[in-house]
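Report of the visiting student (M.T.), summer placement. My assignment was to run the structure pipeline on a short list of targets and document each run. The first record concerns Formyl-CoA:oxalate CoA-transferase.
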Amino acid sequence: MKALEGIKILDFTHVQSGPTCTQLLAWFGADVIKVERPGVGDATRKQLVDVPGADSLYFTMLNHNKRSIELDSKNATGKEVLTRLIEECDVLVENFAPGALDRMGFSWERIQEINPRIIMASIKGFGPGKYADCKVYENVAQCAGGSASTTGFLDGPPLVTGAQIGDSGTGLHLCLGIVTALYQREKTGRGQKVSCAMQDSVLNLARVKMRDQQRLQRGPLKEYSQYGEGIPFGDATPRAGNDSGGGQPGRILKCKGWENDPNAYTYFIIQAAVWEKVCDVIGKPEWKTQEGYAKPPERLDKLNEIFSTIEEWTKTKTKFEVMDICNPLNIPVGPILSMKEIAEDEGLYATGTMVRVDHPERGEYLSVGCPIKLSDSPAEVRRSPLLGEHTTEILSDVLGYKGDDLNRIVGSGAVGDVKAQAAE
Ligand SMILES: CC(C)(COP(=O)(O)OP(=O)(O)OC[C@H]1O[C@@H](n2cnc3c(N)ncnc32)[C@H](O)[C@@H]1OP(=O)(O)O)[C@@H](O)C(=O)NCCC(=O)NCCS
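After the run finished, the structure tokens were exported:
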């Protein structure tokens, strides 16, 4: 049995943020019914196409384990079918632009009227307020949520990060909101509205930078490299390069092969507790007792010299050798792994974190599996649906349309052409 078996999700999501959420629910066993515009579908199906004619990896990697129904929600018959779906489903998830669902005629009030037990979960760029009507994409959220202003080097511009903390990060938050609301419904019998703003989700993930914003009012942030370099702080949390966020000095250092390999680097933290071991490993045993080096506060104005010296050592080792030497000594280091190295790591396939999936249009592709492991509800990754692949199946099995009634729906033009043939 899967954890969310029996839960039906009306998946009205598109692009990345919403689909991240509903994919997790599908992996946990929910029946996720993805509603897509006839003949078009989720825009990502045809974005960043690498295999002509096939659904893109952008789409396939975010829509595993779902079923797809084509449905024009602006057509009268389409609205009838959508109403039936709302009656049947436990959760409606959407990430349309602000107001889109109301314009379709399905406000939260109307949805509750149709099914008081339903949970409606929405992602928008911003919460209520002056920007509530804005359409928002990943990098806009990273900027509005405070991440970009605190990422990058002090002497460079703000930077966005490759991890999709705006889209996928918000999808994760929404997923937790949904299962929490399902849990509350067990006791109250009522559904509720779950809302996540992308700005809020990014800010939640950048929480430690808001911590530093307040600490700044009481004095300089001593663990930031700029403190040791004598560079004054301004009035906002600055960019800290590759400093570690937790008070222990850390940097990214070159390793053997860095001249030709852009990822021949390691992260290296000089935790106070293992300072003596660091000194021994890099051949500087005198720093263990030498004044100016022995105690953490004394080292703060020498971090550039210290890390340059450590780097002279790491440059003689591969990033994996650095790991092999430092790990047994509890010196925290981490190789900078490329996506290629991760894709080739068989250990990740063994745990299901990486998976190989077969697809009728594109053949085998790699995907990231479910990162959350439930011992009683293991996630089995199945390929994403083709556009409208399950239209007739959902109309008949989930909604109970049969015979003439089914033909009426199929003939109305509300569910796309392909399925009209399938019903004949
Ligand atoms: C992502 C986003 C910017 C995309 O904007 P967009 O491509 O213009 O898409 P919209 O959400 O505005 O939807 C476009 C239209 O398609 C319509 N539509 C969608 N599915 C439909 C269907 N099955 N049948 C009929 N119409 C449909 C919508 O009703 C909307 O029509 P309207 O403008 O007349 O109200 C926007 O959806 C958004 O801001 N979402 C919330 C934040 C978010 O999730 N952003 C990150 C995405 S990864």
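The longest strand covers residues 31-36. The CA atoms of residues 27 and 379 lie 5 Å apart. I thank the supervising group for their guidance throughout the placement.
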